[in-house]
Amino acid sequence: MPYIKQENREQYEDAIVDLVDRLSCQMDMNFPGHLNYVLTSIVKRCLERGAGKYWDHNQIIGAIMCVLLEFYRTNTAPYEDEKIQENGDV
User: Fold this and answer.
1) Residues near 31 by beta carbon (within 8 Å), at least 6 away in sequence
2) Any alpha helices (H) in 24-76, and if so which ranges?
3) What is residue 1's predicted lDDT score, i.e. its pLDDT?
4) For the chain, what are the domain ranges?
């Protein structure tokens, strides 16, 4: 769950803002590849600092899955609900 305490978030904020600025988050054909590269690089570098055992891989995969599910729940599902209201359900 991404809801860590406010005081723990502050240590990441400057780096996140810098990454977002560098990605420029333009939804063009290049963006998904750039985002994938950044996220994969972060995960791989964190793994390299750990023991690299199966447990480490499992923890990282679990975190990535939770990111996916939370993003869908809080961003994509409401968007889809809005479009259902506008255009009707299937």
Assistant:
1) 23, 25
2) 31-49, 54-71
3) 60
4) 1-49, 52-90
